[in-house]
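Handout, section B. The chain below has 89 residues.
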Amino acid sequence: MFRSSLSAEDLAEHGVTGDQAHIAQESLGGALAVAEKLPADTGLIEQIQGAFTGSLGIVGLVGGGLMAVAAVVVWFLTPTDVSVEDVDH
């Protein structure tokens, strides 16, 4: 998600090309390191932060949805006649 939010074209607009663009697309730390080396504030840091938080939000929603589906599946697959009252600990 993060990589797709920082396209090579977007990075080229800020003066980041080649190996530096690849490093910027790999991780948040790499992207910030590349952005800090730019001669002027081009707004790239804000774009990087937005790409990261947007990706994090999407992944969180997908993960939450998967957990909800798993909970529903467990609910329906659990036998209703199971009793734990007679179990000794």
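Note. The chain is about 70% helix and 0% strand. Compare this with the example in section A.
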